[in-house]
Amino acid sequence: MFMSDVILRVFFAMVFALAFGFIFIHYFILLARKMGLGQSVRLDGPKRHLPKEGIPTAAGLVIWSGVILSACLWANLKDTFVQIALWVILSFGCIGFVDDVLKIKRGEGRGFSIRNKLLLQGVVALATAGWIYIATNGSSNLHIPVAGCDLDLGLFYILFAAAVIFFFSNAVNLTDGLDGMVTVPSLCTMLVLLLFCYIGQVGELMVVLGAASGSLIAFLWYNCYPARVFMGDTGSLPLGALLGMSALAVKQEILFFIAGGLFILEALSVFLQIFSFRLREKRIFKMAPLHHHYELKGWPEPMVVVKFWIISIILAAVSVGVLRIG
Question: What share of residues in the chain are helix, strand, coil (percent, to 5)?
Answer without folding.
Answer: 75, 5, 25
